[in-house]
Amino acid sequence: MGNDYYIPTVFFTLFFVVDPLGLIPVFIAYLSGYEKKQRNVVILKAIIISIILSAFFIFLGNRLLLYLGISSGSFLVAGGILLFLISVEMLFGKQSEIKMHTYSSGNKEDVSVFPLAIPMLCGPGNIAALLMFSSQNSGDIKKQILLLVISVSVFLIALAVMFFSKVLERLLGETGISIFQRIIGLILSAMSVQFFINGLRSLKVIT
Length: 207
Hints:
By secondary structure, the chain is an all-alpha fold.
């Protein structure tokens, strides 16, 4: 992946996978049972946990793949397939069953870890994307740090969306959110196919 395309490719991939705007209705449902101060604490905890998890997979993910005997090419193929499945869900307006875990707003259970951090913000798709980019960096610490910075920026956008989820829902409406989700689903599907092709090339299956 050329340096000129690295930052936008990583940013848009992670942003599309996390899909903070598409999760606005879900954020509202999970956070509606909290008072403002408690709600803010839950949101901050969810973001911090997501960042810590991302850092783990960025800096130790490649070692984990090597330990398991998984090549970067194989993970690109697997990650491409997973991201394609996520894009299909977006295109057809479906929320993943994992992300749609039911929650009663009357329950004061802390939802910062589950389901806000895992799997809504830092789910399988996001982890797969981080591992793909991390494995491609080949131990380049500068690119690893850049990957973490981009990942954190995506989570900060998600932080803002969660804080202003009710306002954004009123502004965009169900139709606006649905249209946006389908557009990013279409783009993500094309990107996932490219990851799949890059993985096959890395494995020398195609030239």
